[in-house]
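To close the chapter, one final illustration. This time we ask the reader to focus less on the individual chains and more on the assembly as a whole: which components sit near each other, and how the overall shape emerges from the parts.
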Amino acid sequence: MNDIVLEARGIVKRYGHVTAVAGADFDLRAGEILAVIGDNGAGKSSLIKVLSGDVVPDAGEVLLDGKQVHFKSPHDAQLAGIETVYQDLAMAPALDIATNLFLGRELRRKGPLGSVLRMLDVKEMRAQSRKQMDALGITTLQSITQPVDSLSGGQRQTVAVARAAAFGRRVVIMDEPTAALGVRESKGVLDLIRRIRDTGIPVVLISHDMPAVFEVADRIHIHRLGRRATVVRPGDHEMNEVVGIMTGALPPPAMVAEAS
Amino acid sequence: MSEQLQQAGAKAAEVPDTSGTRAVTIVDRVFRNPVLGPLAALILACLVFSVLTDNFFSADNFSLILQQSVVVGTLALGQTIIILTGGIDLANGAIMVLGTLVIAKIAADSLSLQLPALAVGLLVCAALGMVSGLIVSRLGLPPFIVTLGLLTILQAASRLYTKETVLVDSGPLTFLSSGTYLFGYFRITLGVIVVLLSVVVLHYALTRTAWGRHVYAVGNNELAAKRTGINTQRVLISVYVLAGVLYALAALQAFGRSPATSPNAFPTANLDTITAVVIGGTSLFGGRGTVLGSYLGALIVLVLQSGLTQAGIDPLYQNIVTGILVIAAVALDTVTRKKAR
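The assembled structure is written out below.
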């Protein structure tokens, strides 16, 4: 269960004179939720963008299942099975839930209706969307045909996560999924993250929300000054210790290779 | 969607509901249909003028209004798809007029040159659409500025090309006016049938194909569309080129209405089409709207003109009414958008 799924070695990313990522390493193991934390400006967003294909690194390599990959765009990463849920949710608000789930990956009707007239298989996409919501135990959405702008923040987050889980065959990356949510909505999303992990897809969780990180993470990757400072298990440390390591107030302890 | 996920779902806990979202009922769906507003306005306007004037309610008058709708109606379709992506086209009338001039000049010598002339006109219009599309998508310039510049250039270019009125002979170019069909008392020209067909085909493409959904997605949230893997540049360019093709079709419709063309023709086509699109319920902010609504919007303007003329009201009041309608339609859209957020 502890095979490395996604790995990065010596990643460097500069923006002009600013070095955002200075030789960072990263590893994500099968079946785990790996939280990535770090102070503002520590370079964790840039590192994550490299993994999700949003940014091409200046140096270093990324390996998926042990094989080197070169993502030039988020689309490349998606094709490789890596889905990202962005903080500002990548959704078209005027379109309905099912349409958003399949946006960019629409299913066409079989036969000449699809191949000649390019007709979409709306029924099938709606059916699969419902199945996906049921599979993830999502009961907060009344209808798959509701436009996304009629949903609450938590419901939108749920749809974005469901989309990532549906198409993320290898890895799901989530950028601050609970940032804009209330306590109860956060809990719903955290449950959802656990359920994705339980289906066998490892999850990378970027978050400032320490209680959330300690609640769901199997391991915590602490990023500092453009590098990985260490990786700890949430059970081994208090929350304020981890914050101390993150800010440099405490020396980083030895890295743990796997969750307990 | 994997088997694993479904197994996980079986043991999944219920996520607490955190908001009061209304159930989607059939009544909701009818009232949410964006075509309902303009359709109701059109019917209401027809009813009012039928009661108030003696001559409005006649098959001949309705036939005439439909025939008057073909040019602006076709241009409005191109305008709609561009506005759906969050853009706007101020040059549509100028592109079409240059198209008619190119066609007329080439076809001037011989009837047999009409079809090749049409092909050249189509290429010119599509290429000009592509120019806007490339500048908007590749350089990221605002469509308002790009098409304003193109409008200025094309107006001058058309006058440099020819300063006079050019006539085309009856032939393939005027065939849209030649066929007339009687449906009961209604006299329907081929041009009317073609504009209705254009509406239907475009409506299908926008609502039933992946391309259509990508057009809405680009207008809704371009960054989001890009992140889901949609090639947003290609979508934008395809929209501007298709709009150019529709402007060429509008040029053909114009010959169906009148065999004469000049650089001074259709001076307000850009604003007329924006008026039709807005009255038809399409949001100027992009991502919401229908081509069917835009065509109804074009009809509403014509019905107002016809009705107010029949009622003996000064034509200047027609413009005042149209202006009020435009502002009211945008106000409605803005209020709806604020509620949706």
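DSSP finds nine helices and ten strands in chain A. Chain A has a mean pLDDT of 91. With these observations in hand, you are ready for the problems at the end of the chapter.
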